[in-house]
Amino acid sequence: MLQGSSWVLSMAFLIIPACLANGLRQCVCDGPGCTNITCQGRKCFVAIDNTDGFTRQTKGCFSIHLMEQCFSSIAGMVVTKCCDSDMCNSNLTIPQNDPEQPMTKNQLQLILIPVLVVFLILLLVALYFCKVKWHYRQRLLTRLNELGETDMLKASIVGDSTLGDLLDDYCTTGSGSGLPFLVQRTVARQITLVECVGKGRYGEVWRGIWQGENVAVKIFSSRDEQSWFRETEIYNTVLLRHENILGFIASDMTSRNSSTQLWLITHYHENGSLYEYLQRTTVDPEGSLLLALSIICGLVHLHVEIFGTQGKPAIAHRDLKSRNILVKKNKQCCIADLGLAVMHSQTSDYLDIGNNPRVGTKRYMAPEVLDETIRTDSFESYKHTDVWAFGLVLWEIARRTVVNGMVEEYKPPFYDVVPSDPSFEDMKKVVCIDQQRPRIPNNWHSDTILSTLAKIMKECWYQSPSARLTALRIKKTLNKLNSPGDNFKQC
């Protein structure tokens, strides 16, 4: 390399035309071959030699057969730059940041090394998050390893069983709310989707068929994966099953149409949600009591902790509303959508609030949630917010109750003071600052049942959370109104 570069420089300085032909330029010459401070040639040049680690700059002229050396380099070590007027190279330089000057090996390393380091860091971060997500998705599936031979056998013959048989077999033994995971996945893969019966922010609900029986399939959108995981986790809680809690069948993560779908399979109720039911149906006072009592029985079962080896933690719903309550064929209700629920065990004094960034429904938020004074480390605080929301659901039911031949059209709570899709600030102003509550018509007081419901509502809406009724106290009050001959047995 050194020999080649020296040869170029030597030739540049030694070949000086002897005659002054047309087109020759007078150039500055300060190289080792210069006999004077000037030379004559076709081009004047400046050269930088960096072959031994030291930068040297020389000036001279090129004859016509060496002009191809202009603007060239040898491995970035020898760089030349030419001009074509007399003495033009006297002030001609090759700055270090000249765009025509190729980068040296050291310069290239200084640029590439930081770029490679940043790329590797980003790659490691991406791999870390992929690994976390993969482990998160596998948390449920790892429980498959805990299944014994009996579960494996029953999963293999699940096609010969009915849904009722399976649930009776597994859930009456205290094993939990749902089927063993392997059986859940087997059932999920045998379901045929028939029609979409609802859509929401979480995704879609479909009516499906499994061995001739209707089931509801809640398909979560990928952005709401946390809700799917949380519902699956809570529905598999021991002793959760109750006639006023939506019956859970199975949960599965399945791949369809080249995408991952998150399924939650539950009992199907053709009457739909209480929100839909009240818009198309009116009820008599006894019917309103039946709806209210069944809801509070489900809420009490959630709130209570059952102690023992086959116990159950206390659970607060956190998003109770008429859209999250379903109406069964017998006109009783069951509570659904446990994606925001929190769990608490007195034994370990551990509050499990899950890992879901989604918040509840603004229209049903309690004052302490809206003004952000709620004690998030206290399980009792979450129970108080459920009671507030239950009072609003009671109001929705009462509006659709026929009293003395009169009934009002369905309206959501606070319909007359906030927009159809209220903001957090809208609700905060109405509930916390103005301390408004839904209006209770005078004619409700002419009926014993509605009068009691109205009194309960008011005691659910106290500004102070601790002053509100408990779910258990509400249940006892409503049970006293429920005569022995009514359709709903006391819970």
The figure for the number of domains is 3
Coarse structural class: alpha+beta
Distance between the termini: 96 Å
How much helix, percentage-wise, in residues? 25-40%
* CATH homologous superfamily caption of the largest domain: Transferase(Phosphotransferase) domain 1
- If strands are numbered along the chain, what order do they take across the biggest sheet? 7-8-9-11-10
Largest sheet: 5 strands, antiparallel
Hey, roughly how much beta strand do the residues contain? 15-25%
Keywords: ATP-binding, Glycoprotein, Kinase, Magnesium, Manganese, Membrane, Metal-binding, Nucleotide-binding, Receptor, Serine/threonine-protein kinase, Signal, Transferase, Transmembrane, Transmembrane helix
Family: Belongs to the protein kinase superfamily. TKL Ser/Thr protein kinase family. TGFB receptor subfamily.
EC number: 2.7.11.30
Subcellular location: Membrane
What is the compact description of this entry?
The chain is α+β, with helices and mostly antiparallel strands and about 500 residues long. It has 13 helices and 16 strands.
Q: Can you walk through the features of this model?
A:
The protein is an alpha+beta fold. The chain folds into 3 domains: 2-96, CD59, CATH 2.10.60; 142-268, Phosphorylase Kinase, domain 1 (2-Layer Sandwich), CATH 3.30.200.20; 271-491, Transferase(Phosphotransferase) domain 1 (Transferase(Phosphotransferase), domain 1). 35% of the residues lie in helices and 18% in strands. It has helices at 2-14, 105-141, 149-156, 163-171, 181-188, 225-235, 274-280, 285-303, 367-370, 379-399, 424-433, 448-460, 471-481, and strands at residues 25-28, 38-41, 43-49, 56-62, 73-74, 78-83, 192-200, 203-210, 213-220, 248-256, 259-267, 314-316, 325-327, 333-335, 342-345, 350-352. The strands form 5 sheets. It has a 5-stranded antiparallel beta sheet with strand order 7-8-9-11-10. It has a 4-stranded antiparallel beta sheet with strand order 4-3-6-5, covered by helices on one side. Strands 12-15-16 form a 3-stranded antiparallel beta sheet. Strand 13 (325-327) and strand 14 (333-335) form a beta hairpin. Pfam families: PK_Tyr_Ser-Thr (PF07714), TGF_beta_GS (PF08515). Residues 191-481 form the Protein kinase domain.
